[in-house]
From TrEMBL:
This is Methyltransferase domain-containing protein. It comes from the Bacteria. GO terms for molecular function: methyltransferase activity. GO terms for biological process: antibiotic biosynthetic process; methylation. CDD domains: AdoMet_MTases. InterPro entries: Methyltransf_25, SAM-dependent_MTases_sf. Gene3D superfamilies: Vaccinia Virus protein VP39 (3.40.50.150). It comes from Streptomyces genisteinicus.
Amino acid sequence: MFTAQGPTLTELAVQALSSTRRGYDLLAPAFDHTPFRTPDAILDPVREALETVGPFGAGLDICCGTGAGTALLRRVCTERVTGVDFSAGMLDVAARTSPAGPGPRVDWVQADARALPFRGAFDLAVSFGAFGHFLPAERPLLFAQAHAALRPGGCFAFPVVAPPGPDSWLYWALLGFDAAMRVRNALWRPRFVMYYRTFPLPGVLADLRAAGFSVELVPLAALGRRDDGAPRARLVIARRAGRPVPSGAS
């Protein structure tokens, strides 16, 4: 499951017994060698979908980790890109490994996604693989912060994968993981918040609309379809109301 450069089971155990922030600080040097990094198989279809929606000026990667989504933003944004994460360790790796070359400049900001230090500053915000770190009750605040960070007409975009059915081994694996995490957090402090089954699409769409977004779902065709014909993954494009601000305008 992990490469030779990835964390050992002992290191993962230590991280899992830490707080969410401290756990990611510890995991950061090896994070890109684990399955937790968003793979190109997801990033590439998302980028292609966003290229049909843009162009975009300024981009924000919420919970950027080591910068996989930030690299995507450099390909669809023309003005500037900002990665924000609460883990100093993850930001340090992102800053050191961010590829050089043509494209907008990248800034790295340490902040909690529930208290973003931005207002009306971005045309596009994305997030990859981070929503399991927020409890369902925190979604309204998280989405309100994303909404506030966008300019009028700006988009908040993220992929969602269709959940596995109960006839799949993955269904039971994720159910077991979440159950174990709930027991861990009931018995141990500090908490490590990471759940796989707390982001159901109907509730997510309701919370996005309550935050002031209009929402569109775009199938990510490259990721295939389930046996029932439904897309395996969709891109959620949540748009803040208003006329988009021309690139370079304040």
